[in-house]
């Protein structure tokens, strides 16, 4: 069981920046775990602290149940792929892949065998004698992965490994990486600032902001039930509607001149709240509906492919709702928005 357990971890740079600011999290054996957050939130620092490349200022890191907090990087059993791949330009692909084995004085024949096997796993056959400068971006990225895998680390740490690839290659590499990780079953921490990538790849996602954990959950959980407005804003390809509302009686909230059903629980009637509802979870109808609803008029519709994102003005507030492209209403049309109670989230007013 090769898990990673992080407790009370802080990493403070000499200039006083608390890049990781008191983190607790556990990565399970064989899990594909994503660290997601905006640029500068401390993702790389956290990964480097797990690897031992930055010293922890507070707290502990355990790998495979052993406390490695004070252990040097080479003794932690981790393999890391850096954002810029960090390949050696003067070495061949084969030499790059087996460099960690050479450092450990593994015999040349064994190294050759490992290079051949790993190049097969990463679709690099026929490229072993080339130098990094003679490879495409996607191939370089796979060489960096091959080197990490060949080093036989117990855990794989990947710092934005797909961010230097163009959009199409990135999608291909995503699928490839997910399959490889499942085939190898290696515990993996994957850093990204791209919420779609994290949702597509990870078993679980830790959303970070300013060195702190804001939510930890499955892709489904962080998408459908963001724990706070930061996560709500950050996750989803169309932004969540975050509207000021007032708790009304009978399990509903008043917003934008209308109302939506909501699990108001112990929040008192009359309390001001922030109401979150994803455009994907609102239903747009023409004509009257029963139950709580919001009435408005269509301002503009934006094509998203098979869906359209419709902006509806409701009592001075713009609300986004996605509809199938063929049901896109005309600008100016009067429409009614509804949602089911489980899709309407309430946050403390900030
Ligand atoms: P991310 O990978 O999420 O973009 P980083 O871990 O690179 O974030 O950076 C987190 C914070 O730490 C930022 O404020 C950044 O400016 C700061 N930082 C990163 N590296 C250093 C360093 N070597 N010295 C001082 N501050 C740093
Ligand atoms: Mg980074």
From TrEMBL:
Lineage: Bacteria, Bacillati, Actinomycetota, Actinomycetes, Propionibacteriales
Every ABC transporter domain range: 4-235
PANTHER family from the UniProt entry: MALTODEXTRIN IMPORT ATP-BINDING PROTEIN MSMX, TREHALOSE IMPORT ATP-BINDING PROTEIN SUGC
Pfam families documented for this protein: ABC_tran, TOBE_2
Protein known as: Multiple sugar transport system ATP-binding protein
Record carries keyword GTP-binding: no
A GO term for molecular function: ATP binding
Keywords of this entry: ATP-binding, Cell membrane, Membrane, Nucleotide-binding, Sugar transport, Translocase, Transport
Keyword Transport (UniProt): yes
Cited InterPro entries: AAA+_ATPase (IPR003593), ABC_transporter-like_ATP-bd (IPR003439), ABC_transporter-like_CS (IPR017871), ABC_transpr_MalK/UgpC-like (IPR047641), Mo/tungstate-bd_C_term_dom (IPR008995), NA-bd_OB-fold (IPR012340), P-loop_NTPase (IPR027417), Transp-assoc_OB_typ2 (IPR013611)
């Amino acid at each position: 069981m090769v898990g990673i357990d992080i407790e009370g971890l802080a990493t403070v740079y000499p200039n006083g920046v608390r890049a990781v600011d008191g983190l607790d999290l556990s990565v399970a054996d064989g899990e594909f775990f994503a660290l997601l957050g905006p640029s500068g939130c401390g993702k790389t620092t956290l990964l480097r602290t797990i690897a031992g490349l930055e010293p922890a200022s507070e707290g502990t890191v355990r790998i495979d149940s052993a406390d490695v907090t004070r252990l040097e990087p080479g003794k932690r059993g981790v393999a890391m792929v850096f954002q810029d791949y960090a390949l050696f330009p003067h070495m061949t692909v084969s030499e790059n892949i087996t460099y960690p084995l050479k450092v450990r004085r593994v015999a040349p024949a064994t190294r050759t065998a490992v290079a051949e096997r790993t190049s097969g796993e990463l679709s690099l056959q026929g490229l072993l004698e080339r130098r990094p400068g003679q490879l495409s971006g996607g191939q370089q990225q796979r060489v960096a992965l091959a080197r990490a895998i060949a080093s036989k680390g117990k855990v794989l740490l990947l710092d934005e490994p797909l961010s230097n690839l163009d959009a199409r290659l990135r999608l291909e590499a995503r699928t490839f990486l997910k399959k490889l990780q499942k085939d190898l079953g290696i515990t993996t921490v994957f850093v990204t600032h791209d919420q779609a990538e994290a949702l597509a790849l990870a078993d679980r996602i830790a959303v970070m902001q300013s060195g702190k954990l804001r939510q930890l959950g499955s892709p489904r959980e962080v998408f459908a039930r963001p724990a706070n407005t930061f996560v709500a804003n950050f996750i989803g390809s169309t932004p969540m509607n975050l509207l000021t509302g007032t708790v009304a009686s009978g399990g509903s909230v008043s917003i934008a001149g209308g109302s939506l059903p909501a699990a108001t629980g112990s929040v008192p009637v009359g309390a001001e709240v922030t109401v979150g509802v994803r455009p994907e979870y609102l239903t747009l109808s023409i004509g009257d509906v029963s139950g709580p609803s919001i009435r408005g008029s269509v301002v503009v519709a934006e094509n998203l492919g098979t869906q359209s994102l419709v902006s509806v003005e409701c009592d001075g507030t713009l609300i986004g709702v996605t509809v199938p492209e063929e049901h896109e209403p005309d600008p100016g049309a009067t429409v009614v928005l509804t949602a089911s109670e489980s899709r309407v989230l309430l946050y403390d007013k900030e």
